[in-house]
Amino acid sequence: MKFKTLSKSLLLAGTLLLSFSASALKSDTQQPINITSDNQSLDLEKNIVTFSDNVVITQGSILINARQVTITRPADSSGKEKIEALGSPVTFQQQLDNGKPINGRAGKVNYDLGSQYLVLTGNAQLKQLDSQIDAEVITYDVQQQKMIAKNSGKGRVKTILYPSQLQQK
Question: What is the pTM of this model?
């Protein structure tokens, strides 16, 4: 019986920690994107814009801080950008529809808008309230709502759960 409760708690924690894309404030995507940085460069031929040094991105409740953010738009008609953020670390936060914040950090964050696939690399962490997942690499498929956390020989994946917080709605 305890195993079933623990499994349910782990599944719920994973769902809560990674539901930021599915249950993020729906109004966020309708808000303007504001980007400030100390420097910006644009390569029209390659369709690449780079923001560097003290980059701050906001959109609704979303806040991202990074050292450098590069946005690449493919030359074909798909129009789906790829975003790479670098930092020491890159940090982000967003408010969920239920009012709870989700926070994350990693040395590098890649997001492919076309496939809706997010990869956090280098001391990656996702946190909601006091529950968190720490790993070298955390991947999240937004469409399928599947997360994988793994370490490549650098220790173990660490998950901290607070059952009282998991049961709150």
Answer: 0.77
